Amino acid sequence: MEIRHSFDVKKCVLCAYFVTFFSYLFIGFMPAGATDYNVSARISIPSINLMSDVTTLELDGRKLHTPDTIVGSYSEAENKTLLIGHSSTVFQDLDETEVGDAIWYSGHGYQIVDSVTLLKSDINMNKLLEAEETDTLIIMTCAGEDLDNHDATHRLILTAKAV
């Protein structure tokens, strides 16, 4: 009894087509921004098991556009960095942090010294971004009631100082 192995070109071409097609679908339908950020740092908040890449943000007029799945950083003064992220993704547990919790950012240690929730309209961004004598992080995310435009009525703001 002889067993023959035949090489079917049509089956190979069809298989290669499906592999290519499904790879294209997977890559083509990935969430926008999932992999195209320039990573400038990393942040870790051990108390809430948060670890994320950080990308540097540029002002667009008077707005900062928050990345979808990682943290964005912005600074216009020495010793002060604003970190922003969505409360529905990267900062979903940020409200569980407490004063005294450790933060690691760009290889340096920080400690949360203040946590406050403010109405969005009560926040003075100029004051929030002004220079500090010691290295300071301001971490901000949405809080309060959800609004129709993927926004919220309040902001949770953490202040962390270098240790």
Walkthrough of the structure:
- The protein contains two helices and eight strands; from the N terminus they run αββββββαββ.
- Strands 1-2-3-4-7-8-6-5 form an eight-stranded mixed barrel.
- With 163 residues, it is α+β, with helices and mostly antiparallel strands.
- It has a single domain, classed as Sortase (Sortase, Chain: A).
- The termini are far apart.
- The longest helix is centred in the first third of the chain and has 20 residues, at 9-28.
Describe what is shown at a glance.
This protein is α+β, with helices and mostly antiparallel strands and 163 residues long.
Helix/strand layout:
Layout: H1 9-28, E1 39-45, E2 50-56, E3 71-77, E4 80-84, E5 102-105, E6 108-119, H2 125-129, E7 136-146, E8 152-162
Parallel strand pairs: 2-3, 4-7
Antiparallel strand pairs: 1-2, 1-5, 3-4, 5-6, 6-8, 7-8
Spans of at least 5 consecutive residues whose pLDDT stays below 50 are: 20-35
Name the helicity range: 10-25%
Q: In DSSP terms, counting alpha (H) and pi (I) runs of 4 or more, how many helices? A: 2
Classify the secondary structure makeup into a structural class: alpha+beta
**What is the arithmetic mean of pLDDT?**
85
What is the string of helix and strand elements?
A: HEEEEEEHEE
The CATH homologous superfamily name equals Sortase
Q: What is the molecular shape?
A: globular
Give the tally of structural domains.
1
- By CATH reckoning, the class would read Mainly Beta
Largest sheet: 8 strands, mixed, barrel
